[in-house]
Sequence to fold (103 residues):
Amino acid sequence: RDLTIVDELGLKLKYVINTHAHADHVTGSGEIKRKRKGVQSIISTASTAAADVHVTGGDKIEFGSRHLTVRNTPGHTAGCVTYVLDDETRCFTGDALMIRGCG
Fold:
């Protein structure tokens, strides 16, 4: 379904970005990479998971004229990160933020 939306919007997928290394998150990265050659997976260095690109707090992920800044947000797992859009209007947390045990 994710790639269908990418295609419908006419976008070129550059990265698959993971917030942490749980199977329900990282398993899809490999599947997308198999279907789209050249796409790179990203995850935090602290996660110790395999990826094409490893990031840590303060790193920037460039795409088009925009970027995401990586913020370390350990808690759910040791390697959790949050990705903050350059104008700070959006953040992508995955399960990094927990409310009553649910992410």
User: Anything to note?
Assistant: The radius of gyration is 14 Å.
